[in-house]
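Deliverable D4.2, example record:
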Amino acid sequence: MNKMNIFTTLAALTATLLLSGCAMRTAPDPGDPADVVQAKMGAPTAVYTNGAARTLEYATGPMGQYTWMAHLGPDGRLASYEQVLTSEKFATVKIDQATKDQVLRTFGRPAERSHVAMHDYEVWSYRYKEAGVWNSLMHVHFDGQGVVRQMLNGPDPMYDPRDRGFW
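Output generated by the structure prediction step:
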């Protein structure tokens, strides 16, 4: 087997294993205890606490467009489970009121962080499928006190073929 065939075979095997790992995840059911949720979903990418209640974050970023939040009640059982990177969920953010902590607990970790010098804003960007179709980025701008001052969305340049030299 030449080097190119070995590389191709290894690449195909890696892709198959990655896809099968994703396919093996099973959505948890309401009422599942925390250990069953983790057995189905794997280790969370972050855990947020609110008293005795917890939220388990399952982010696919920084390149992925989906983040699932498993909300566990004070009894340690699954109260709800949702994909949070949606236009509808972003619309719930209250400009001039929401804080970094609230955004983090609602959407999980951002795909990218940047800074806008003109307003001295920190920007958290989230990849998502706008209307379930378009590859988009939602940019959440925070002032120096960590309050959301604006949100802007637009096409995700990662998926723009013009940026890849195809045109």
